[in-house]
Amino acid sequence: MNEKAIKKEQDTELKRKRNNFRRRKPRLAVVYIAVLALLYVIIFVFPRVTGFLTSTYVAQYGELRVVVPGTGYIIRDEKVYGADQGGELKREATEGQLIRKGESVVTITKGADGQIPQSIHKLAESIGSKNIGKTDGKAPAGGIVSYWIDGLESKLTPKSINKLKLKELEELGKSKSVQLAETSIAKNEPAFKIIEKSRWYMVADVDNSVIKDFKEGRTITVEFPELTDGSGKGIEQHPVRMTVVKVTKEAGKAKLVLETTMFMDQLTKERMASVSLITADVKGLIIEKSSLTKVKGQEGVYVKDKQGKYVFKPVLVLGTDKDKVAIADSYYHNDNGEKVDTVGPYEDVLRNPKK
């Protein structure tokens, strides 16, 4: 092969390589951009979304409210009173009114004696004649007045609370209240009932998974979000503070017995209601539950100081839910009354010190 042929072959090879490079160049650019995009996601986006590669976070001020839904069965210490004569009736006290012994609840003017309406007669039989007192219209005992009965007044009592199973309560709770006579009344017909005002009770059923939040002796807040005035309009109400008296397990549920000295006049005729049991409703610094650890028996967290080192700080837990914890900020006083410095707002908290 002469020199001219060799030169031609080399030029042809060089041209082929240049053409191959030009064809690969766009593909290399695409790969390069894809790699850059992947690095951006890994470095900037992924850590923000998942917390990966991030060992700390900033403690910030906020609120923690833990609400456990359930069904509440209202149990009152109450007594039904029947008229000692038939005639015309006039109410002197209003529903939910607090009245003293001997005060007039209704006025009964003797007249023609009628028959007890079937709906009320049936409920009176359920209560039992021995459990229905007699009245001339005056209150035989002091308490809260109600003109509604549901036939459960002698079945759902403070003495029967611990004996009743949730299944029984569920069935009994379906009973409907009936309003008593307003203008005329028959002899022995229930005229009103008096509810003991100093203490009343509720049995609530909640999921077994939250039973640890309801220790006996603990006081919680209870709300009744679905109460209405009868026309479907919601009732303005105040939360009720109740104490957990007893906790038992029944068929996958926890049965809570609660008591209170607060009384809601909206509950004089209610027997079963949806309830919100509030186990935590606090303000403080919000941190992640995984940050909590113990050093020499003291609960606390690790925070990053100005030198970038992690130092342990004790904390006072105010409330907790599944993932978050509310703690006192800056300082608190321990059981001995001593001031203890703790985590402050915007400090960097170690996410999981146990890893």
Overview of the molecule:
This protein is an alpha+beta fold. The protein folds into 3 domains: 1-54; 56-63 and 283-350, conserved putative lor/sdh protein from methanococcus maripaludis s2 fold, CATH 2.40.420; 78-197, no CATH class. It has 3 helices and 25 strands. It has helices at residues 3-50, 118-127, 166-172; strands at 56-58, 60-75, 78-83, 87-91, 98-99, 106-110, 132-135, 143-146, 148-149, 178-179, 184-185, 190-195, 200-207, 219-223, 240-250, 253-260, 272-288, 293-295, 298-304, 310-314, 317-320, 324-327, 331-333, 339-341, 348-350. The strands form 7 sheets. Strands 2-13-16-15-14-17 form a 6-stranded antiparallel beta barrel. The radius of gyration is 36 Å and the shape is elongated. Mean pLDDT is 86; it is low at 47-52.
Report the β-strand fraction as a percent range.
35-45%
State the helicity in percent bands.
Answer: 10-25%
Q: Structural class, from helix and strand content?
A: alpha+beta
Distance between the termini: 73 Å
Indicate the multimeric state.
Answer: single chain
Main sheet: which strands, in order across? 2-13-16-15-14-17
Q: What's the helix-strand series?
A: HEEEEEEHEEEHEEEEEEEEEEEEEEEE
Would you count the extended β strands for me? 25
Low-confidence stretches: 47-52
Total number of domains? 3
Radius of gyration: 36 Å
Mean pLDDT: 86
Number of helices: 3
Largest sheet: 6 strands, antiparallel, barrel
- Overall form: elongated
